[in-house]
Every structure is written in structure tokens, then in C-alpha cells.
Write a structure and sequence with these properties.
By secondary structure, this protein is an alpha+beta fold. The chain has six domains: 42 residues, no CATH class; 67 residues, Nucleic acid-binding proteins (OB fold (Dihydrolipoamide Acetyltransferase, E2P), Beta Barrel); 69 residues, OB fold (Dihydrolipoamide Acetyltransferase, E2P) (Beta Barrel); 74 residues, OB fold (Dihydrolipoamide Acetyltransferase, E2P); 83 residues, OB fold (Dihydrolipoamide Acetyltransferase, E2P), CATH 2.40.50; 35 residues. It contains nine helices and 20 strands. The strands form four sheets. The chain has a five-stranded mixed β-barrel with strand order 1-2-3-5-4. The chain has a five-stranded antiparallel beta sheet with strand order 8-7-6-9-10. The N and C termini lie far apart (177 Å). It comes from Ferviditalea candida.
Length: 431
């Protein structure tokens, strides 16, 4: 088989010998090496290597320049494409640099092409939107949680970028009410899709749904292991007139106002504030009604536990009258430590009721007669801190009144004193 026949079978062109000779002569005249192509041919090959584009094509390219209101992208065409700022993102941008940077690879859709003006307009937003809707529709079906950064704080809620504009209504951001969202910008939220409407370009999201599900899970787990008398660490979440709600691990328990302190408390704010870390004791667990009763004071040493180190029998201390009853007065000698002053120990003179000489809130000096911390009891005396000041009677009427009162106060007739025994010499002198 001849060389010419082989070339014909392979599809290669066969040139006459004289043409080869002419080419050799031309090469010799130009000084080019054998086989080198003229510049016009190389340029033509370079043009042939360029991609061909039409409106609607999806292309990948690299950002080569970022300007304030547009981005230039090399997509392998004979000139760079332009992405206007409005076509960069589904969200409003003040500057193109907020969305892309030089060297970043982007995927865009050809919006228009004009070779005469060398103008190739692209849209990154169009490609992102299609991908985003497909992803969001899958996520709505599966109920998966997605993360997104807050791009804008607007009236009524928050805006996030998901490739399309997503909206989180204010009522769906947290489990609790939020008055001011100004510091939420750039925060990352964990969200579930509530509503999708592709035709209206509407995406409604909720973080509250995610938090609610987590709360219910934590609550079930906590109730399964919570027991009375456990001592736990917690954080004060809310104050109400009747107590404080404390978070003990994702679930709130109530510390009733009576369990806040060993001292009397008029309002919880006197003892704690929101955000305080406190130690609490579990008083009661009610899984059926999902209630937990807690105590702050029970988690602290009781006032009677240290009273033995503070006082002893015979001490004279200052206290405050807390309550008056028919048989005496209760006086507080230390926070949470009250003792009884029996009516017979209030005054040297006879009194019918304690409120004849005492009033609640009054400060008094008392002597500790007996102290029993284990039973949380103390016997006190006011009169033993004072000197007896019994003046002699001046008239017979006064004598008879004293005698009458003494007879009433004595329980045994054997202890009744006669007038002569009582006043003896004083009566003789008066006579």
C-alpha cells in the first residue's frame, strides 16, 4: 500500500508535492521553522477554543474584579461577563463585595449577550434561586433543621439568606417574647420551614419550633431522673409576685416566695434577680402536671443550725417583736430564729395582753432562758433584762386593786397573799 493510500484511509488530506515545495520555500523566506503555523492560524485556533454561549445557558467562571455595583467574571468567553449587583443575591446589597470576592468560583445564568458591544450579562441569583427552591422543598418534606445567618432585621421579624429570601416572624424567633431584635443581625439561627410558596417567592421559617422540640425532649429526660431532695444548680429565668422560676437544665421549676429565704420576703426581687445562678433543693416532682417545686432556702444551712454557735443560755440580746399572741410575744433574735417571751416574762407588772406594752416591729432586749436548736425552740424574757420597779401603794383603793389583780393571776389559793402579809409595815405606817 502506498503512503498516499494510507493517508486517504485515515482521512488526512493529501497535498500535491509542488504545494509542499512551495511551503518549504515560503518558510525559507520568512525564517520560520518547518511545521510552524502563521500567526493568523494560531489566533483562529484560540478563537475556536472559546466557549459558545446563548441566552439561558448556565456557566461557571471565576471572579476577576469586584466593583461597587457589579462583578466581572471570566467564563471562558472572548470577553468577561458582568453580574450586576441586583443579580448577585436575593437580598439587598449595598456593595457587591458583600456577596463575592476576587478568585471565587461562581455559577451564573446568561441573561443577555451582545457581541457587537461586547456585553455579556449574567445572573448568579437566578442559579442560586433554582437550587435553593429544590433544596427547600426537600427539607420541608423531611422536616430537617437548617442553619442560616440573619441578614436583616426588619419590621415584624428577621430576614435570612437561603439562596432565596427567607423570613422569620418575630413570634417564631424564640420561645419567649423578644422586644428588641437589633442585636440579632449576623446571628446564626437554627430553623425549620413552616411555609413555602414558590410562585409568590415566600419562605416562612421558625426557630421557635426547633427550640420547642428540644425543650420537650429535655423535659421528658429530666422528669425521668428527677427526685425529691436532690440539690441542683439553676438559673433564675423569671420573677413573679408569688415566686421565681428557675431553669434546672432546660426545664423551669417554681421557687415559691416562702421558699426563697429563711427571712420574710415581700417580693422575690428582694432576694434574687433574673440571670442569677442559684442552688435549689427539689421539694416535689409532678410529672403528670409537669410541675417542679423547688426551694432556695432548703438548699442553704438553716438559721437554727448555727444558732448554738451564736448564743447560749443567759445571753442578753436585741431582738424584734414579730408576732403578738394571747400568751406572749415571738421575738426574732437572728434571721429566721424566733423565741417565745411568755406573757409572764414580758413585764414586772401584771398585764392582761402583750399588746398593752409591745407592738409588732418593736426592738426589745431579751434574755435567753433556754435554747433548744434541735426542736427550734427558745424561751426568752424581757423583764429579766430590766430592774423591778414596783412602787408602794399610796391609797387603800390602790391596795385593793393590786390585791384583786394578784388574786386573779394566781392559780393556787395557797399562793394568795393577804393584804397584811403583802404590805405589813407599810399599812401600819399609813394608819
Amino acid at each position: 500500500m502506498t503512503e498516499e493510500t494510507k493517508l486517504q484511509e485515515t482521512g488526512a488530506s493529501v497535498e500535491p508535492a509542488q504545494d509542499n515545495q512551495a511551503a518549504s520555500e515560503a518558510t525559507a523566506e520568512t525564517g520560520a521553522s518547518v511545521g510552524e503555523q502563521p500567526a493568523e492560524v494560531n489566533e483562529q485556533q484560540s478563537v475556536d477554543d472559546l466557549v459558545t454561549l446563548k441566552k439561558g445557558d448556565i456557566v461557571k467562571g471565576k471572579v476577576v474584579k469586584v466593583e461597587d455595583n457589579q462583578v466581572l467574571v471570566d467564563v471562558g468567553y472572548k470577553y468577561d461577563g458582568v453580574i450586576p449587583i441586583r443579580e448577585l443575591s436575593s437580598l439587598h446589597l449595598e456593595n457587591a463585595a458583600e456577596s463575592v470576592s476576587v478568585g471565587q468560583e461562581v455559577e451564573s445564568k446568561v441573561v443577555s449577550i451582545n457581541d457587537d458591544k461586547e456585553l455579556l450579562v449574567l445572573s448568579k441569583r437566578a442559579v442560586d434561586s433554582v437550587k435553593a427552591w429544590e433544596r427547600l422543598e426537600r427539607l420541608l418534606e423531611t422536616g430537617e433543621v437548617i442553619e442560616a445567618q440573619v441578614a436583616e432585621v426588619v419590621k415584624g421579624g428577621l430576614v435570612v439568606d437561603l439562596g432565596v429570601r427567607g423570613f422569620v416572624p418575630a413570634s417564631m424567633v424564640e420561645r419567649h417574647f423578644v422586644e428588641d431584635f437589633s442585636d440579632y443581625k449576623n446571628r446564626t439561627l437554627r430553623l425549620k420551614i413552616k411555609e413555602l410558596d414558590r410562585e409568590s417567592n415566600k419562605v416562612i421559617l421558625s426557630q421557635k419550633d426547633v427550640l420547642d422540640e428540644e425543650y420537650e425532649s429535655q423535659k421528658r429526660e429530666l422528669f425521668s431522673r428527677l427526685q425529691a431532695n436532690q440539690v441542683l444548680e439553676g438559673t433564675v429565668q423569671r420573677l413573679t409576685p408569688f415566686g421565681a422560676f428557675v431553669d434546672i437544665g432546660g426545664v423551669d421549676g417554681l421557687v415559691h416566695i416562702s421558699e426563697l429565704s429563711w427571712n420574710h420576703v415581700d417580693h422575690p426581687s428582694e432576694v434574687v434577680k433574673e440571670g442569677d445562678h442559684v442552688k435549689v433543693k427539689v421539694l416535689k416532682v409532678d410529672p403528670e402536671n409537669e410541675r417542679i417545686s423547688l426551694s432556695i432556702k432548703a438548699a442553704q444551712p438553716g438559721p437554727w443550725e448555727s444558732v448554738q454557735d451564736q448564743f447560749k443560755s443567759g445571753d442578753i440580746v436585741t431582738g424584734t417583736v414579730k408576732r403578738l399572741v394571747n400568751f406572749g410575744a415571738f421575738v426574732e433574735i437572728a434571721p429566721g430564729v424566733e423565741g417565745l417571751v411568755h406573757i409572764s416574762q414580758i413585764s414586772h407588772k401584771h398585764i392582761g395582753t402583750p399588746n398593752e406594752v409591745l407592738k409588732e416591729g418593736q426592738e426589745v432586749k431579751v434574755k435567753i432562758l433556754d435554747l433548744n436548736p434541735s426542736e427550734k425552740r427558745a424561751s426568752l424574757s424581757i423583764k429579766e433584762t430590766e430592774e423591778a420597779r414596783v412602787a408602794p401603794p399610796k391609797t387603800r383603793k390602790e391596795e385593793q386593786e393590786i390585791l384583786k389583780n394578784d388574786n386573779v393571776s394566781m392559780n393556787s389559793s395557797a399562793m394568795t397573799l393577804t393584804l397584811g402579809e403583802r404590805f405589813g409595815d407599810k399599812l401600819n405606817k399609813l394608819k
